[in-house]
């Protein structure tokens, strides 16, 4: 018989959710990360990101994030969790998140 322990309790990982501004293509307005260790849900973290274009009414309807809320947020490239690699790829980093 297979081990009845669910896989989500046997691994360490993070669940990531992003919200966009509703434009085509969408720009990032929020990043949320929840670490999960041994099946225990950790402290969620989220960051607002100022998109280069306004948030549409439809996107605002779903996630309730307004242009005013992101007006003082960093842009995606200048976010505390984003950095540019020499090859110009964008990756996320945060020394406060350990898995």
From TrEMBL:
UniProt region (Disordered), positions on chain: 73-99
Domain Exonuclease intervals: 15-76
GO molecular function, one term: exonuclease activity
Record field: transmembrane: none
Keyword annotations: Exonuclease, Hydrolase, Nuclease
Domain of life: Bacteria
Signal peptide: none
Classification via SUPFAM superfamilies: Ribonuclease H-like
Pfam family membership, one: RNase_T
Name of the protein in question: Exonuclease
């Amino acid at each position: 018989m297979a081990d009845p322990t669910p896989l989500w309790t046997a691994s360490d990982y993070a669940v990531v959710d992003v919200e966009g501004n509703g434009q085509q293509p969408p720009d990032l307005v929020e990043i949320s990360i929840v670490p999960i260790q041994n099946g225990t849900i950790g402290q969620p973290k989220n960051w607002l990101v100022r998109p280069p274009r306004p948030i549409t009414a439809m996107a605002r309807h779903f996630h309730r994030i307004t242009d005013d809320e992101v007006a003082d947020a960093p842009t995606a490239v200048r976010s505390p969790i984003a950095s540019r690699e020499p090859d110009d790829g964008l990756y996320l980093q945060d020394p406060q998140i350990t898995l």
